[in-house]
Amino acid sequence: MIIMGSDAEEIAKLRRNLFTDFEMKDLGGLKYFLGIEVLRSSKGIFISQRKYILDLLVEIGMVDCKPIDTPMQVNHKLKMVEGATLADKERYQRLVGKLIYLSHTRPDIAYAVGIVSQFMHKPQEDHMEAVMRIVRYLKGAPGSGIIFKRNDYLKVEAYTDADWADNPNNRRSTAGYFTLVGGNLVTWKSKKQKVVALSSTEAEFRGIVKGITEVLWISQLMTEIGFPPQSPSQLKCDNKAAISISENPVQHDRTKHVEVDRHFIKEKIENEIIELPFVRSEEQLADILTKAVLK
Count of alpha carbons within 13 Å of 144, Cβ hemisphere only? Predict the structure, then answer.
C-alpha cells in the first residue's frame, strides 16, 4: 500500500488507524512497488523497472543475448501472412503481457509493444521475432526510466503524431501522443485508429483530437487538486494542413467526414484552452529526448 498526501498529520493518523485494525509494517519512503523502483535525489524522483527487466531476461534465457539499438525495425510492416508458421501462443501472450507492464516506465517501447500486441490471437514467427527484438533492446539499457524534476512551472504540453495507413492488413493508421506537466512526462499512448483515414491529414487530425482530450483531462485533474492552468496548453503537431483545418472556420467538402472532430478542436482553440503550434518532425523528436525522457 502506498500512502501519499500533503498533510503529514493526516497521514500519521491514517497510519495509526491502519496499524490498529490490521497487521502492517511501515517500510518507510517508497523504494520498490510492484516491480517499479523509485530513487530520490537532489535532481528529482527517478522510476525504472531494472530488476523486472533483468528477471525477464533470466526467465526466458536471454541474459547473454546481444543488445540492439532500436525496439523495432523501421518500416516493419508486420502483418498476418496466410500459411505462415505459427509461434507458441501461450509464450507470446505471456511475453507481450510483461512488455505491456514495462511500458509504464519505458515510453520508448510503447509503439513497438502496441504493434506486437495486435497479434495476440494468432501470433506467427515474424511476430515472435519482433517481440524478441524488443527484449534485446531492453537488454541494452535495463536501467533506463523516467525522471520527475521539480521545476518552477506547471504548464501542460502535448505532442501528437500519426503514421498514415501503416497497417498492411487493413490500412488503418496508428496515432500517438505524450503529455508533459511542468516539463515532466506524465502520460503517453500509441494506438491504431478505429477507422481508415483517407489522407495523412485526417490521420493527424484524429490524433490531435485524442491529444486534446488527454490535455483536457489533465487540466481538469490539476484544477481539482488546486493547480488550475494559468495559460493555454500547447499541443504541438508536425502537420500544417491539420493545423490549418483546425483553425479555419470555413467548411471544406474534403473534411466533412471529420467535421465533428474539427468543431471540437476549433472550439478549444477559440476558448483559449489549447494552442496548436507547428513543430517540425525532427524538432519534435529533439524535444522528446530533451524534456521527456529516459536517463
Answer: 18
Structural domain of 138: 48-145
Half-sphere exposure (CA, 13 Å, Cβ side) for 280? 3
Cell of 124: 506467427
The set of cell numbers assigned to 137 is 533492446
Q: What is the mean pLDDT of the chain?
A: 84
Per the DSSP assignment, residues forming a β-bridge with 146 are 47
Take residue 170 and report the three cell numbers written for it: 487493413
Of 92, 123, 145, the residue that ends a domain is: 145
Distance between CA atoms of residues 279 and 240, nearest Å: 9
- Tell me how far CA of residue 197 lies from CA of 4, 162, 189, 205, 281, in angstroms: 43, 11, 19, 10, 20
275 plus 165 within the same structural domain:
yes
Given a contact cutoff of 8 angstroms between Cβ atoms, the answer to whether 278 and 226 are in contact is no
| Close Cβ partners of 161 (under 8 Å, ≥ 6 residues apart) | 175, 176, 177, 204, 207, 237, 238, 281, 284
Q: Which of 95, 113, 145 is the last residue of a domain?
A: 145
3-state SS string for 31-48: CEECCEEEEEECCEEEEE
Residue 259 has pLDDT above 80, yes or no: no
| Positive or negative: CA dihedral 103, 105, 109, 110 | positive
User: What residues does 37 pair with on adjacent strands?
Assistant: 32, 48
| Least confident segment among 63-72, 213-222, 269-278, 282-291 | 282-291
Measure the N-to-C terminal CA separation of the chain; round to a whole number of Å.
27
Q: How many domains does the chain have?
A: 2
Tell me, yes or no, whether 175 and 267 share the same domain.
Answer: yes
Q: Which three cell numbers stand for residue 114?
A: 502496441
| Spatial CA neighbour of 212 closest among 238, 240, 232 | 232
Phi-psi region of 182 (alpha: psi -120 to 50; beta: other; left: phi over 0): left
